[in-house]
């Protein structure tokens, strides 16, 4: 063999005696076949077969299988982000003339996708009160193909009655999808409550290090899995095995990370609720949070994300109060090792149930820093939000 050929063709090496705990990262675009006949019959390999790198490698299949097991499902598909995973579900189910229901508390880009992409193509959407429960039956008509649930809701943490929504939807022939990113399958399993799609933004707790973008959808029905796979194939959507490898690594520590941030977040939520500068704390484990009884009934625990509604008089001082954070960072997303604060405004996004709280909202994501350091940062924010003392006038 010439040297140019030796540069291209890798020699076979023995794997005897080699055993690693890590999942190998298999990178591939081209998949090679044993012979011409197997190549010609590649479309018959089915959704679990290997035909082209875009459609999966053993690395992505391992992640899919692990997520499927955690959710108690039948199959899982991967997408380049959580938003992409939601879009794939909707594009798979909805055609012109159909109708989809989304909660008023839905992740903002989902509403944007419905308004800016689906609606111009003749697919109607409506936002509903996330606390509607069984009453959602009155919003489902003969064209409703999907009811989307996000529990707890983005920013304001409302916990939805998934079993009641599922019962109402199934009675009228609609499917139900649930964004389960806040809880992960460790704290809530939507499929076990009757949902047809369990969606996760793996970017968050599964990845766990703020360095990957990935989403997933797990289903119990294999026919739905085939439809999702067909949509991915037609749109040319695939995921990187390197991203999948990072997610597999993150999964190994997700249990201990989630338990830790859950404990710290609840402790901080309780402390903040006692501050005179706080109007209310939105944490599903606190009785004052909308849907607390549902959380207590259905969830196995709480994660590390919650929100604080400040008194309206704090707003003029909020920017300065957040200027000198020592441990927390200001940023979107959550679920990584770093703790984050995100100032939020939801008033303009709500259409079904107006948001009437006049004060600013801070969404807090607890990471893995020292507890005392984190609380010192939050305590400093509270001190900077206090009104300046009025000087004595002689």
Helix content: 25-40%
Spatial separation of the terminal alpha carbons: 99 Å
Count every beta strand, where a strand is a DSSP E run of 2 or more residues: 12
Total helix count? 12
Neighbour order of strands in the largest sheet: 1-7-6-5-4-2-3
Strand content: 15-25%
Helix-strand sequence: HHHEHEHEEHEHEEHHEHEHEEEH
| Main sheet attributes: strand count, strand direction, barrel closure | 7 strands, mixed
Structural class given helices, strands, pairing? alpha/beta
Low-confidence spans: 389-394
> What's the mean pLDDT score?
95
Taking Cα atoms only, what radius of gyration do you get, to the nearest Å?
24 Å
Structural overview:
There is one protein chain. With 394 residues, this protein is an alpha/beta fold. The protein is 35% helix and 15% strand. It has twelve helices and twelve strands. The strands form two sheets. A seven-stranded mixed beta sheet has the order 1-7-6-5-4-2-3, with helices on both faces.
Give the arrangement of secondary structure elements:
Blueprint: H1 3-8, H2 36-40, H3 58-71, E1 75-79, H4 82-93, E2 99-103, H5 108-118, E3 124-128, E4 144-150, H6 162-171, E5 175-179, H7 184-187, E6 197-201, E7 215-219, H8 222-235, H9 241-272, E8 278-282, H10 292-298, E9 305-310, H11 315-321, E10 329-330, E11 340-344, E12 361-365, H12 371-385
Parallel strand pairs: 2-3, 2-4, 4-5, 5-6, 10-11
Antiparallel strand pairs: 1-7, 6-7, 8-9, 9-12, 11-12
